[in-house]
Design a protein that fits this description.
- The protein has about 200 residues and is mainly β.
- About 10% of the residues lie in helices and about 15% in strands.
- The protein has two helices and nine strands, in the order αβββββββαββ.
- A nine-stranded mixed sheet has the order 1-2-3-4-5-6-7-8-9, with no helix packed on it.
- The longest helix has 12 residues.
- The protein is elongated, with a radius of gyration of 18 Å.
């Protein structure tokens, strides 16, 4: 089955037509293809999916980017691992509180946007995601588990703005490990006076 037929199935499952565009933008219900007609980008925000992932998504074997914001999703299916080319998953503004174990089976996943969900603990599985570089937990309720991000060999951009953190394991940060670290709007009590790995974020 070709991707065009899978898109037709997806349109039936979400109850509306999706626009074929040259470049996907976050607010438009649309998809983008490569020169071979394979769907690489899919944007389906605000479709009132009510917690249900359309099954056709997991047949799009060349997907690199998914925007599935604001759909009342409560979980990420284990079969997300079928999308071996996925580089970016944007699942902000849902009701997710944990990640599937299969998230580390996405070999080229680089960006994971989980802002405005219901996480209270950072999942340990993130430390073993092989290509993950950027992780966004903005506007959650996280109070622990930050060490898992710093144990990763690849994560260099961490966004934890507006959570419930009162401590952070600064001592685990190695020099040149992080490109970005956002801890704004937390009440962190243990910011060290000097640490080569974090000084640039406060000066």
């Amino acid at each position: 089955m070709g991707d065009s037929q899978i898109i037709e199935q997806l349109e039936e499952q979400v109850g509306r037509k999706l626009k074929h565009v040259e470049k996907v933008v976050w607010f438009l219900k649309s998809y983008q293809t490569n020169q071979f007609g394979q769907v690489t980008h899919l944007s389906i925000p605000k479709l009132q999916l009510k917690g249900q992932w359309p099954k056709a998504i997991f047949q799009l074997q060349h997907l690199e980017y998914i925007n599935i914001q604001e759909n009342q999703l409560v979980s990420i299916p284990e079969k997300i691992a079928q999308l071996k080319h996925l580089k970016c998953l944007d699942i902000r503004i849902n009701q997710i509180s944990e990640l599937p174990d299969s998230i580390h089976d996405l070999p080229v996943l680089e960006k994971l946007y989980l802002g405005d969900n219901q996480f209270t603990i950072i999942p340990s599985i993130l430390s073993s995601c092989p290509g993950l570089m950027s992780i966004d937990f903005t506007n959650n309720m996280i109070s622990e588990g930050c060490e898992h991000l710093l144990k990763s060999e690849t994560i260099c951009n961490i966004y934890l703005k507006n959570n419930k953190l009162n401590t952070f394991p600064f001592e685990l940060i190695e020099e040149q490990q992080l490109a970005e670290l956002n801890l704004q709007e937390n009440v962190i009590q243990n910011i060290p006076d000097k640490n080569p790995g974090i000084d640039k974020f406060w000066h």
